[in-house]
Write a structure and sequence with these properties.
Blueprint (H helix, E strand, L loop, with lengths): L1 H40 L16 E6 L5 E7 L8 E5 L10 H7 L4 E5 L17 H15 L5 E6 L1 H12 L8 E7 L6 H7 L3 H16 L1 H12 L3 H12 L6 H13 L2 H12 L14 E6 L7 H10 L3 E6 L6 H4 L1 H16 L9
Parallel strand pairs: 3-4, 3-5, 5-6, 6-7, 7-8
Antiparallel strand pairs: 1-2, 2-4
Helix pairs in contact: 2-13, 3-4, 5-6, 7-10, 8-9
Length: about 350
């Protein structure tokens, strides 16, 4: 009996010690996460007080090829024939991601911004079509309604860059007459899934690629991912957005803004649009962009790294690559002054004398 009681006592002590160890480990994890959040939020917040959710000008509605209504805003010099920047935002974002661009560039040039189908204030896709071809058709509809004659420079970030390439695949005739230049920022033309996984290392990518393809084929998994990325609490969403979209010195207000927009994106954007992006192959469209192209990369971009940008530029007829240092995937926010300067300089080259239109 004594030996039995002693054995039970040892087991009980081991359980208590193990539980205590798990508790200590959990507490240490929580403490480390809180310390990481404190450090991330201690970065100088240069965007504090900036109305990042402000929408420019007056909103109009444009009906796309399948009846989907798109929210379109125009700001800057009057006249549909004025040299125009047309901005296409990224995945789960909306036109407010271009806050610093329209505020600066619209002083001298006309700026057209719109929300992709299912994003922002645009309607869900009619018939549930969230293919990249549909995004290209949407861009065509916005061009026809807002820039009927041109000249225009298309500026696309991430998904927005893919929409531009989808337009080029379907309507190559647009590039050279109405569209005089293209800015492709932090985007890709193909193999996005392999690129993202490749950042984890070749062995990890080899193991994860089949699993990721199964993920794409099952929308329920994408729904769970959305829940974890933007539904796991403000602090966790902040850390994930910072790790995937920004560099270490990004202003906390910018990160919070991206989290806020992404959290409002409907489930079908996270499922269907993500699947379209990960399975895309628009490499053939690059040869149709027969106008000057500026490819903007960021050295800390984990989603579309500089190597992807260089590979894309090598297939464009007239392209140059500029790499922004210290920025992540959302360079247009994080390094907006440098980004704006690059776009302005490029527009002067692409538009020539026509770019001299100024406000009164």
């Amino acid at each position: 009996m004594t030996a039995g009681r002693t054995g039970h006592g040892r087991t009980a002590r081991r359980v208590v010690i193990a539980a205590a160890g798990i508790g200590v480990a959990a507490a240490a994890t929580v403490a480390a996460e809180r310390a990481l959040i404190r450090r991330a939020r201690s970065v100088p917040d240069v965007a504090r007080g900036e109305a990042l959710d402000q929408r420019p000008g007056r909103e109009t509605r444009v009906r796309s090829f399948d009846g989907t209504e798109l929210a379109v805003n125009v700001v800057g010099p009057d006249g549909a024939d004025a040299p125009t920047f047309l901005f296409c935002h990224g995945f789960t974002l909306d036109m407010t991601a271009w806050h610093y661009q329209w505020k600066h560039l619209s002083r001298r040039r006309r700026c057209v911004l719109f929300d992709h189908r299912g994003h922002g204030r645009s309607a869900p896709a009619a018939g549930g079509d969230y293919s990249l071809q549909a995004f290209g058709h949407d861009l065509q509809a916005v061009l026809d309604a807002s820039v009927p004659e041109g000249p225009a420079v298309l500026v696309g970030h991430s998904l927005g860059g893919m929409a531009i390439l989808a337009l080029a695949a379907e309507h190559p005739e647009e590039f050279g007459d109405r569209v005089r230049g293209v800015v492709l920022a932090n985007t890709a033309a193909a193999d996005l899934l392999r690129v993202v996984l490749g950042n984890l290392g070749s062995k990890a990518a080899l193991w994860l690629l089949p699993a990721a393809r199964r993920f794409v084929s099952d929308p329920r998994r994408a729904y769970r991912l959305r829940s974890r990325l933007v539904g796991g609490g403000a602090d966790l969403a902040f850390l994930i957005a910072r790790a995937t979209n920004f560099g270490p010195s990004a202003a906390p207000s910018m990160i919070d803004h991206v989290v806020s927009i992404s959290a409002r994106a409907p489930v079908e954007v996270w499922t269907d649009v993500m699947a379209s992006m990960l399975e895309m192959d628009l490499g053939h469209a690059l040869e149709h962009v027969r106008v000057p192209a500026l490819v903007v990369a960021s050295d800390l971009d984990r989603l579309t790294p500089p190597a992807t940008s260089r590979a894309m530029a090598a297939k464009l007829p007239q392209a140059r690559v500029v790499e922004i240092e210290g920025a992540g995937h959302c360079a247009m926010l994080e390094r907006h002054q440098e980004f704006n300067r690059l776009v302005e300089e490029f527009a002067r080259e692409a538009l020539g004398a026509e770019q001299e239109t100024v406000t009164a």
